[in-house]
Amino acid sequence: MKKLRLILGDQLNSNHSWFSNIDDNIVYCFFEMRQETDYVKHHIQKVVGFFAAMRNFAEELKAQNHKVVYFKINDQKNTQNLVNNLSILIDELAVEKFEYQEPDEYRLDHQLKIFCEGLNIEFKIFSTEHFYTKREDLSFFFKGKKQFLMENFYRNMRKKHQILMVDKQPEGGKWNYDASNRKKWKNDVLIPQEISFNINVTDILSEIEDSGIHTIGKINPKYFEYPISKKQARIQLGYFCEHLLVHFGDYQDAMHTDKIYLFHSRISFAMNTKLISPKEVIETVLETYRNQEDRIDISQVEGFIRQILGWREYMRGMYWMLMPDYKKENYLKNKNKLPAFFWTGKTKMNCLKNSVKNSLDNGYAHHIQRLMVTGNFALLTGVHPDEIDAWYLGIYVDAVEWVQLPNTRGMSQFADGGKIATKPYVSSGSYIHKMSNYCMSCHYNKNKKFEDDACPFNSLYWNFLDEKRTQLSSNFRMKMMYSLLNKMSSEDRIKINEKANHIIKNIDEY
Question: Tell me, what DSSP letter sits at residue 422?
Answer without folding.
Answer: S
